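I'll show a record.
***
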Amino acid sequence: MTIACAGIGVGTGVAIGNACMLNRGPVCVAPSWVAATAIETEIERFESAVRTAALQLQGVREQIPPDTPAEISEFIDTHLLMLQDKALSGRPIQMIRAEGTSAEWALQQHRDALVRIFEDIEDSYLRMRRDDLDHVVNRILGILLEQHQSQFEELRHQIVLAEDLTPADIIMMKKYDVAGFATDYGGPMSHTAILARSLGIPAVVGARAASRCLQHGEPLVLDASTGIVLADCDEDVLAHFAARQAADASRTAALRRRGVQPAITKDGELIQLLANIELVEDVETARVNGAQGIGLYRTEFLYMNRDRPPSEEEHFDVYRAVLEGMQGQPVTIRTLDLGADKQPGTATTSAAACNPALGLRAIRLCLKEPELFYPQIRAILRASAFGRTRIMLPMLTNVWEIEQAVRLIRQAMQHLEADGIAYDPQIPIGGMIEVPAAALSARAFATRLDFMSLGTNDLVQYTLAIDRVDDEVNYLYDPVHPAVLRLIHEVIAAGIAADIPVSMCGEMAGDGRFVPLLLGMGLREFSMQPAALLDVHQQIRKLDVNCLTETVHRAMNNLETIDPTSLLEELDRAH
C-alpha cells in the first residue's frame, strides 16, 4: 500500500475504484479560415454552438439537487449570463464576417484578447472571472470541435482525477454515480469542496500531485476523512475500506430513523437544529433529516436567469409552499442577497464595483433599490399568514440600515392592512451578522432586532481579509482564529444579554469539529445543510453543555495563549 497523494478531505466517506483522468485543460485550436461563400454558414455554426452550450448548462442547473448552497447555482448562472453577453459572442461573429476566420479561431483570438486585459489588472476577483471565461470558451470550443461528448457515463464507479473541476462537472458526476474525486487545486471552502460536501461525494481537494502522480486505470482508495488517496492496495486493505463503506451506509440509515427525536444534550439542554435551503424541493429533505425548522431560506434563485425581477405573486406562491411544506415549523426567509455580479434586469450597478463581496449587495442594494425590495417584503408578510415566518436581513453593517429596512417593512404592513390582506403583525425581524463591524456592534443590533444569525462563511473571510475560494490564500481560512472566536462569542453574548435568539447558518454550524466549541460559547440554534443534520444531531446527544461551557470560558479568557487545535481536541475528549 502506498499513500499516493494527500490533500484536504471533503466529508467523511470512502471511495474505492479505478483512477480516471479527466482532462479539463485548454482546448487547442489552430488558425483556420473558411471560404467567402461559407461565412454565413460559419456564423450560424458559431451561434448554434453558443446555444448548445447554454442548453447544456441549463440542463446541469436543473439537476442541482436539494440542500445545495446558493453559490453553486450562482456559479452556473454566471456562465449562462456570459453566454448571453454580446461582449463574448459579438466580436467572434465580426471576425468571421470581416476576415473569414473559422468560428474556433475567431473565438480563441477573442478569448486571448480578453485574457490580456485581465492580466493587466491586479485584482483577485477579476482573476476568478478569467477562470469563468476559460470554462465558457472551452465549452463552446468543445462543441465546435465535436470534442464535448460526455465522458461521464464512462466515469461510473471510478475515482476521477483532475487539476480542478467546475460545479457543472461535479453535478454530472453525481448523476452518473462517480465514486469520488481528487483535484490538484481547491480549498476547504472552495466551490468544489462545498458542492462535494453537499452532494455526499467523497473527495480530496488541494492534492497538488494527484493528476500527475497517479496512473489512469490503477485501483485506488480515497479516504475523505483523512484526505489521502491510496494506491497499490492489497486485498486486505480493500476489504477493510469496503467494510467501512458498508458501516457508513448502515449508520446513515440508523441516524435517519433517529433523526425525528429532539436534539437534547446529556445534561438535558434542548438544541434547535434547523436547515439551510434554497428551493421548495429542499423542504422534504430537511424534514426527513429531522430539521426543526428552516434557519436560512435563500431567495436569490428567484431572481436568476430572467430579464426582470419576480413579481410579488411569484414570491408569495413560493414562500407559501415552503411554509406549508414545513407543517407549522418556523421558516426564516432571508431577503435577497444579490451582488454586483448577480443583478436582476432592473437593478443598477456601479462600473467601479470590481469586487462584489465588498460592493453593492444584499441590504445595501435593497435600500438603494426599494422597488426591488418592497414586493418581496409584501410577499413575505402575506405568506406569514400561512405559517411561522421570520424575516432576516443580510449583510448588515450599520444600525441605520436596520432602521430603514424596518421602516419599509412597517410601511408594507400598513398597506396590507389598508387592503384587508392578512399577515402576522408580530413577525420577527432579524439580521445576518457576517461583517466584523456588525459583530462588534452586536449589542446595539440586539436592541433593534428580534433575532440574529451568524453567517460565518463571510464573517471569517472578512475578518481575516482572505478570499475563501482563492487557492493562493485559502489556507488562511480559519474559523477558530482567535479574532473570529472573539467575534462569534461577542454576538452570542449580546443575544443572551438582550434575551433574543442567536443562531448560526454558516458552514461552521454543520461541522462536527466545532459543535462542542459553539455549544460551550452558548449557541443553541444551529442551521446547516440538510445532509449534515443527522450527524450533528447524534453528536449533540453525547455532549454535556455544562462541562463544555467551563472549558470554553477558560479558553476565551486566554485566547492569546491557547492553541485552538488543542482546544478542539480537549472539547472532543470532554464527552
Observations:
- The domain at 2-22+152-243 is CATH 3.50.30.10 (Glucose Oxidase; domain 1).
- The longest strand covers residues 14-21.
- The longest helix spans residues 39-62.
